[in-house]
Amino acid sequence: MKKQIEQLSAYEPGLSPRALKETYGIEGELYKLASNENLYGPSPKVKEAIQSHLEELNFYPETGSPMIKEAISKHLNVEPSRILFGAGLDEVILMISRAMLTAGDKIVTSEMTFGQYYHNAVVEAATVVQVPLKDGYFDLNGILNEIDDETKLVWLCNPNNPTGTYFTHEELKGFLEQVPSHIPVIVDEAYVEFVTAQDFPDTLALQQQFSNAFLLRTFSKAYGLAGMRIGYVVAAQEAIEQWNIIRPPFNVGRLSEYAALAALEDQDYLTFIRERNAEEREKFFAIDKRDAFFDSQTNFVFVNTSKPHELYEALLNVGCITREFPNGVRITIGFPEQNDKMIEVLKDFEL
Ligand SMILES: Cc1ncc(COP(=O)(O)O)c(C=O)c1O
Predict the structure, then answer these.
(1) Does any ligand 1 atom lie closer than 6 A to the CB of residue 166?
(2) Closest-CA residue to 333 (of 301, 296, 305, 303)
(3) Domain named Aminotransferase class I/classII large: which ranges (predicted)?
(4) Is there a contact between 230 and 87 (Cβ–Cβ < 8 Å)?
C-alpha cells in the first residue's frame, strides 16, 4: 500500500436510521438529514425514464456518456469536448487528482470544506494547504497568498459544504485575475441549483476569460439523483482529453445517464425544488439565534455551537438525523414538518 494512505481513514457514513433507533430507543420515523440529499427526490419523469430502459441492464453503457454530454453541452452552451462525466463528483475529483498530482506537488484549498479534495491529494502524496475560513467564508486572499511555484491545483467550493456560504462573481473574478494562468482553479458548484443570490458567479462566463477556471456540477443534489452517481466537470479541452485517459471506460451507469437526461429536461421541477428549499431555508434564518448560523445558499444550514453532540441528540429526538462537526451541526433542509420541529428545538437550545 502507498505509505501516505496510512494517514487516511475510510469514509465514515454515521449510524444508519435502523442503528440509531436501536441505540437511542427511538420509536417512529427517522429522517436522514445528514448528507444534503434532496428529500423530494428527482422529477417523476426520471422514474419513467428508468423504467423504459430496464431491458438494457445486461449491456455496458456507452463510454463517455455521450447522450447526457450532448444534452449538457446544449444546456450550458459549451462544446461537448469540454465536458467529462464521472460516477458522481467524488469520482471526478479522484480522476483529476490522479491525473494531475504527483509526490511533492501542492494543492491549496480551504479549511472546513468538502473533504475529498484533501483525501485524494494525500493519496497522490501531494501536500495540502488548508487556509482557515474568514468569518465562515472562503478566504480568497488567504488562498492567493499560499499559491506558489509548487502549486498544481486550487480547489474552491461555492457555495461551500459544510458552511453553505458563497463568494460573489466579482470576488471570483478578482481572484482569477491574480492566479497564474497555468494553475487550474477548480470551482465545485455541487449546490449551485439551490442558489438564489443574484451576485453568485457565472463561472461559465468567467471561463471564456480564464481558461484555467474549471467547473464541477452534479446531479446528486437539487436534481435528486445521489443514488445514481453522476456528475461532471467543464474545463479546457486539453485538460478533459488528459483526464479522459484515466477515466474507467464504463464509469457512469446506463440508467444513470437516462435518469440524468430526464432530470435535466424537467427544469420546472428544478425551479420548484429551488423555491421550496429557499422558503424553508428562510424559516431557519428567521429565528432569533440567526447569529449562530452561517449564511447559506444551499439545501443545508450550519449551526455553530459549543455543544454539537447535545444538539445532534436533541434533533435526533424529534426524528431528524443531522451531521455533527467539532464546532457545530449541519442540518439538511427537510420537509416543512421536520424543519418546523428542528426550528422548535433550536429556539430552546442553549447554543
Ligand atoms: C461540495 C461537494 N462536492 C462534491 C460532492 C460529491 O457529490 P457526488 O454525489 O456528485 O459525488 C458533494 C457531496 O456531498 C459535495 O458536498
Answers:
(1) no
(2) 301
(3) 31-345
(4) yes
From 90, 215, 230, mutation site for ligand 1 pocket: most ligand atoms within 8 A of C-beta: 90
Distance CA 106, CA 58 (A): 42
Number of CB atoms found within 10 A of residue 232's CB: 24
Alpha helices in 134-234 (DSSP H): 140-146, 169-178, 203-209
Residue 179: CB within 6 Å of ligand 1? no
Among residues 50, 85, 90, 56, the alpha carbon closest in space to that of 71 is found at 85
Between 88-100 and 116-123, two packed helices, what is the crossing angle to 10 degrees? 40
CA 235 to centroid of ligand 1, rounded, Å: 18
What is the pTM assigned to this prediction?
0.97
**Angle at the Cα of 105 from the Cα atoms of 99 and 109, rounded to 5 degrees:** 90
What's at 140, amino acid-wise? Answer: L
State in Å: Cα 91 to ligand 1 middle.
10
**Tens-digit pLDDT profile for residues 166-193:** 999 999 999 999 999 999 999 999 999 9
- Nearest Cα neighbor of 203 from 230, 248, 243, 170 is 170
Question: What's the pLDDT tens digit per position in 270-294?
Answer: 999 999 999 999 999 999 888 899 9
Residue 91 Cα distances to 82, 226, 252, 301, angstroms: 17, 13, 10, 25
